[in-house]
């Protein structure tokens, strides 16, 4: 099983023991999971991966679960990586791909993070969790908690996509709709969790969702036969996916599976809530709280991300960029792959399509470069958004 070693603060490098429940570091920094990669390098060959399960758990030696019986899986991960030739032609590229994480349990890539986090809850004896969510994290948490027999308390903005509310209620979660944003939901959870005995599954306040999401990076490498693409466009809300993929690349290089070449990491945000783009443009190490956040891409409505500094670091080190697109562009970005490829994306994925079009048009991407558009969710979860 796992080569889990210890946890390490992403800010101050303080170490924490495995086998115990941890939230943030004392200094407020998110914790990252560290593995014994030297040992793994000797014991774990990339050619053996394809014999593992048809899910993200094929990378279980670099995931934190120590006992197989702890794993709570609904078949998440190992999603299609699709070459989109007709879309490429429209955009003037010759090597464009969509990684479609809409094909996941609960219809979004949040399944990856929650499968891992809830598995660790089971392993460490947690029986009540709380999640503030812009929508999809709630749906995934409710489903995996149900599968694990864990009580889920969900707090989400009143105007989340209807599918998110209904899926949580059907999964038996206790749902509270909040007049406000995800940041308001997070405040309620942190105020009440101690008295209620809830384990807080907020983005990056626990160390394991990022481990689930890093499997996106492992999969892209495996699916391209261990040669990473030239660029990856990712819809950046809390930034967990970018941070996770970047971590996966570092781990795979240490394992001897990939070279030191990295894709340009592109953080895509909505024009109505672009804190990371602003920070990138200003050369700032972290973002500022973005007031009056508004966008139809509910997963991108995150005014201030706890891991902003880590996402910005990955974008900068990779030679990537951060770019904002308007809601109108997002709607076009949903329509383009739907009508030319049959891929019905979430608005967050549509944002990446729109950004890709812009970056090809302005020359940031050369037409011959291999570019992956990350679609993080299914359009089917946003029917009333699209129907307006
Ligand atoms: C949560 C979410 C995002 C943002 O993900 P982060 O890893 O928090 O940046 C993007 N797309 C969808 C569909 C989401 O649900
Ligand atoms: Zn710290």
Short description:
This protein is an alpha/beta fold and 388 residues long. The chain has helices spanning 37-43, 85-91, 110-123, 136-148, 162-170, 182-196, 209-223, 240-254, 275-282, 308-317, 327-341, 347-361, 383-387, and strands at 4-9, 15-16, 31-35, 81-83, 96-100, 128-132, 151-157, 174-178, 199-200, 231-235, 264-270, 321-325, 371-375. α3 crosses α7 (209-223).
Can you tell me about this structure?
This protein is α/β, with parallel strands linked by helices. The chain has helices at residues 37-43, 85-91, 110-123, 136-148, 162-170, 182-196, 209-223, 240-254, 275-282, 308-317, 327-341, 347-361, 383-387, and strands at residues 4-9, 15-16, 31-35, 81-83, 96-100, 128-132, 151-157, 174-178, 199-200, 231-235, 264-270, 321-325, 371-375. The protein has a 6-stranded mixed sheet, sandwiched between helices. Strands 8-7-6-9 form a 4-stranded parallel sheet, with helices on both faces. The longest helix is centred in the middle third of the chain and has 15 residues, at 182-196. The relative contact order is 0.14. The protein binds pyridoxal-5'-phosphate and zinc ion (ZN). Zinc ion binds at residues 9, 11-12, 14, 25, 27, 29.
């Amino acid at each position: 099983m796992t080569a889990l070693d210890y946890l390490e603060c992403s800010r101050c490098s303080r170490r924490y023991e495995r086998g115990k429940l941890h939230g943030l570091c004392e200094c407020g920094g998110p914790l990252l999971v560290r593995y014994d990669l030297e040992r793994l390098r000797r014991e774990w060959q990339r050619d053996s991966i394809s014999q593992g399960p048809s899910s993200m758990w094929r990378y279980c030696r670099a995931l934190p679960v120590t006992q197989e019986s702890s794993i709570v899986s609904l078949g998440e991960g190992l999603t299609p990586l699709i070459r989109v030739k007709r879309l490429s032609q429209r955009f003037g590229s010759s090597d464009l791909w969509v990684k479609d994480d809409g094909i996941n349990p609960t219809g979004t890539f949040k399944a990856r993070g929650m499968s891992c986090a809830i598995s660790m809850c089971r392993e460490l004896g947690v029986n009540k969790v709380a999640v503030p969510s812009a929508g999809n994290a709630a749906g995934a948490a409710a489903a995996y908690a149900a599968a694990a027999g864990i009580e889920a308390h969900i707090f989400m903005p009143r105007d989340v996509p209807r599918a998110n509310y209904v899926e949580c209620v059907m999964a038996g979660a206790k749902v509270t709709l909040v007049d406000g944003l995800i940041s308001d939901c997070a405040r309620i959870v942190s105020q009440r969790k101690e008295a209620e005995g809830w384990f807080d599954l907020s983005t990056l306040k626990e160390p394991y969702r990022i481990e689930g999401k890093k499997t996106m990076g492992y999969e892209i490498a495996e699916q391209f036969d261990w040669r990473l693409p030239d660029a990856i466009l990712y819809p950046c809300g809390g930034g967990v996916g970018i941070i996770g993929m970047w971590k996966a690349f570092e781990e795979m290089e240490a394992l001897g599976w990939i070279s030191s070449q990295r894709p340009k990491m592109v953080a895509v945000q909505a024009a109505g809530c672009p804190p990371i783009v602003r920070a990138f443009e200003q050369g700032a190490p972290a973002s500022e709280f973005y007031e009056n956040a508004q966008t139809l891409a509910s997963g991108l409505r995150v005014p201030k991300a706890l891991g902003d500094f880590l996402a910005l670091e990955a974008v900068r080190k990779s030679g990537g960029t951060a770019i904002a697109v308007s809601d109108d562009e997002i709607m076009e970005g949903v329509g383009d792959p739907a009508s030319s490829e049959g891929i019905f994306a979430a608005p967050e994925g549509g944002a990446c399509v729109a950004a890709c079009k812009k970056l090809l048009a302005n020359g940031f991407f050369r037409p011959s470069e291999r570019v992956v558009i990350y679609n993080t969710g299914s359009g089917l979860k946003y029917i009333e958004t699209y129907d307006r």
